[in-house]
């Protein structure tokens, strides 16, 4: 999910969201890792997950 999709304002969603998601997928395929720690997401609530997606800087 791109940060735009995790926000409350859905007006910013466009092709950039698709490109971000494609980049996230291309990162995960060879490394089998996501940009956000899986353990951190497992213990987080929905609101905390959305905040992580919006605020966490992608490596």
Description:
The chain has 59 residues and is mainly alpha-helical. It has helices at 3-6, 15-31, 38-42, 46-55. The protein has one domain (3-55). The mean pLDDT is 78.
User: Terminal Cα separation, in Å?
Assistant: 15 Å
- SSE order, one letter for each helix or strand: HHHH
Q: With helices defined by DSSP (H or I, 4 residues minimum), what is the helix count?
A: 4
Which structural class fits the helix and strand makeup? mainly alpha
**Could you state the oligomeric state of the chains shown?**
single chain
Note poorly predicted spans: none
Morphology call: flat
Count of DSSP strands:
0
- How much strand content do the residues show? under 5%
What composes the largest sheet? none
Tags for this model:
single chain; 59 residues; mainly alpha; 61% helix
Strand-helix topology:
Elements: H1 3-6, H2 15-31, H3 38-42, H4 46-55
Brief characterization of the structure:
This protein is mainly α and 59 residues long.
